[in-house]
Amino acid sequence: MKRFTTALIAALIIGGCGAEKVQAQRKGEFSLGARMTQYFRAKTFALGIYGNYGITRWLDIEPGINFLCKDNSSVDIYCDLHLLLEVAETCYIYPIAGIGLSDMSSESLGFDGWSFSGALGAGFNYRLNRRLTTSIQCKWIAQTAHRHRNPVSLSLGIEYAF
Predict the structure, then answer these.
(1) Mean pLDDT calculated for residue range 106-119
(2) Using an 8 Å Cβ cutoff, are 78 and 99 in contact?
């Protein structure tokens, strides 16, 4: 966990120093996407949809919802902030900081309710063309529900820019 936190802090510092050179996102650009997410500690996967809006050319916001695919399935509603760092003309990496709300219903743990969460992570996007972008993200999600593990998630997605 210390290595992950150190790497995330380093990415944020590097991102802040090089943000004026980023041109991967257009200010005011909006896109919609679909994503498949694997939650490792929760031992389940989810299918989700999300929107992405370019606040500036180097900062965007991504609200979304994931539907977990298992018995007594739950839903995760989240909103992430990305600091875009251009690697090449068609690809960029970004640190992620976000908040979320999760339906944590579980008969085996005796918990039925909602949990607030915070998320830290990183992502990589590759533009296939002007409209289509693929992405991969890894996030650590800190849940406030005391009986639930804090999952690490890995996501693959595709989005269409308008």
Answers:
(1) 72
(2) yes
Domains and CATH numbers, the chain: 2-161 (2.40.160.20)
Whats the size of the chain, residue-wise? 162
What is the per-residue pLDDT across 117-153, written as a single tens digit (0 to 9) for each?
Answer: 999 999 999 999 989 999 999 999 888 876 666 789 9
Q: How many helices (H) and strands (E) in the chain?
A: 1, 9
For the chain, the straight-line distance linking the first and the last C-alpha, in angstroms and rounded, comes to 38
Say if residues 81 and 98 touch (Cβ distance below 8 Å): yes
Q: Which residues pair with 31 in a beta bridge?
A: 52, 161
Q: What share of the chain is helix, strand, coil (3-state, %, to 5)?
A: 10, 60, 30
The rounded distance, in Å, linking the Cα atoms of 142 and 123 is 18
Q: Other C-beta atoms within 10 Å of 53: how many?
A: 14
φ, ψ for residue 120 (rounded to 5)? Answer: -130, 140
